[in-house]
């Protein structure tokens, strides 16, 4: 099972000081956080893609290429690649290039994003969101799987005998997760292709997450990729830790209350009760994260959001130390002990390259 962190790259004023980092400082902080993630033994660093304030990561491949050069083991991922407003040809080429630079340590999470105005900025109509996601991904798969593509669709100009370059490393395209919070069509898309499904359940109760994951697992089996238990599932989560749970709540409350995504809404207590947000001791984070298995089944990737809402870089690095030293080692052991025989590991480039080279029976 893989453990890591994801960032949305928000620029938010620290409510305890009133000061907000500049774009340069926030970008540099994200690079520091990624390198720290490898240092403490995490598996994955993932960045979102945004094209509007208060977010800064508009060019994930630039950021991940830099991180690739300064890490050795960390899997570099997106926590959203906008399949709706990016050109599939550009995605195919950009991420194949990144795959070569990182020696295969790359995967993607396709999504539609949560910013409506981004559609017209890139010449698209938000009412076409689902159709764009379906058509663009179908083309992307062909661009990676076929050396020469002739194609015509609804949303972009046709292609005639086109070859995207570079070709995927070792002939194996980056693994794809389809990320969704609320759209069953995306769970269906992930199941159809036999790809991973990442449910970023940070805003939703367990009952909703269960329904979405169950749908994906059922449809994965329907399309003949394996049993429901063999489907590839990832989950999001949010944590804030201190050795003493009361200290964690007291320190995190002003950040929660002013966060751009959920501030000025439900109370911290309501949110921690109704969603996976865990604010407390490392042991509470361990127990809460292990409970995700009760409604999502055995899954392959767990990503935590820890660097949002104006939290200082020093505090985020302390959170990473707690994750790497006290939380993730226990989670690895406990999840491994609970995992039944036959549940697959998280896909990696080496495992997928080996599988592609193994003759089917």
**What is the arithmetic mean of pLDDT?**
93
Strand order of the largest sheet: 1-2-3-5-8-9-10-12
Q: Quick one: how many beta strands?
A: 12
Shape: globular
Q: Kindly report how far apart the N and C termini lie.
A: 27 Å
Range of strand content: 15-25%
Please write the string of helix (H) and strand (E) elements: EHEHEEHEHHEEEHEHEHHEHEHH
Low-confidence stretches: none
Roughly how many Å is the radius of gyration?
A: 20 Å
Q: Give the % helix.
A: 40-55%
Quick one: biggest sheet?
8 strands, parallel, barrel
By DSSP (H or I, 4+ residues per run), the number of helices equals 12
Structural class, please?
alpha/beta
Keywords: Monooxygenase, Oxidoreductase
Organism: Streptomyces racemochromogenes
GO molecular function: oxidoreductase activity
Pfam families: Bac_luciferase (PF00296)
Protein model, in words:
This protein is an alpha/beta fold and 361 residues long. It is 44% helix and 16% strand. The chain contains 12 helices and 12 strands. It has helices at residues 23-39, 60-69, 88-101, 118-121, 129-145, 184-193, 206-222, 245-258, 268-274, 282-296, 313-338, 349-357; strands at 2-7, 44-47, 75-78, 81-82, 106-111, 149-151, 159-162, 175-180, 196-199, 233-241, 278-280, 301-305. The strands form 2 sheets. Strands 1-2-3-5-8-9-10-12 form an 8-stranded parallel beta barrel, surrounded by 8 helices. Strands 6-7 form a two-stranded antiparallel ribbon. Strand 4 (81-82), helix 3 (88-101) and strand 5 form a beta-alpha-beta unit. Helix 6 (184-193) packs parallel to helix 7 (206-222) and helix 10 crosses helix 11. The longest helix is centred in the C-terminal third of the chain and has 26 residues, at 313-338.
């Amino acid at each position: 099972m893989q453990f890591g962190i994801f960032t949305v790259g928000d620029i938010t004023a620290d409510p305890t000081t009133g000061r907000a980092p500049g774009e340069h400082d926030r970008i540099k902080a994200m690079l520091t956080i990624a390198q720290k993630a490898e240092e403490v033994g995490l598996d994955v660093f993932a960045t979102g893609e945004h094209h509007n304030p208060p977010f800064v990561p508009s060019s994930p491949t630039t950021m991940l290429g830099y991180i690739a050069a300064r890490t050795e083991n960390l899997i570099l991922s997106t926590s959203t690649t906008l399949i709706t407003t990016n050109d599939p040809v550009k995605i195919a080429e950009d991420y194949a290039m990144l795959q070569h630079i990182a020696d295969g340590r790359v995967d993607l999470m396709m999504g539609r994003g949560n910013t409506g105005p981004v559609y017209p900025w890139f010449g698209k109509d938000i009412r076409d969101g689902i159709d764009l996601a379906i058509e663009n991904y179908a083309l992307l798969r062909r661009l990676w799987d076929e050396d020469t593509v002739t194609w015509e669709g609804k949303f972009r100009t046709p292609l005639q005998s086109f070859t995207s370059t570079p070709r995927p490393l070792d002939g194996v395209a980056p693994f794809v997760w389809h990320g969704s919070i609320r759209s069953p069509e995306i769970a269906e898309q992930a199941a159809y292709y036999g790809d991973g499904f990442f449910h970023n359940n940070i805003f939703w109760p367990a009952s909703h997450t269960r329904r979405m994951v169950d749908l994906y697992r059922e449809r994965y089996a329907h399309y003949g990729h394996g049993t429901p238990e063999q489907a590839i599932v990832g989950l999001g989560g949010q944590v804030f830790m201190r050795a003493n749970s009361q200290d964690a709540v007291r320190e995190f409350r002003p950040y929660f209350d002013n966060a751009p995504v959920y501030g000025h809404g439900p109370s911290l207590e309501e949110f921690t009760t109704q969603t996976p947000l865990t604010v407390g001791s490392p042991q509470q984070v361990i127990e809460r994260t292990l409970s995700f298995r009760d409604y999502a089944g055995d899954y392959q990737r767990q990503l935590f959001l820890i660097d949002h809402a104006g939290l200082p870089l020093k505090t985020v690095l302390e959170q990473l130390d707690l994750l790497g030293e006290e939380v993730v080692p226990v989670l690895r052991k406990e999840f491994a002990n609970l995992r039944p025989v036959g549940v697959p590991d998280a896909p990696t480039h080496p495992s997928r390259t080996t599988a592609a080279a193994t003759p089917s029976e």
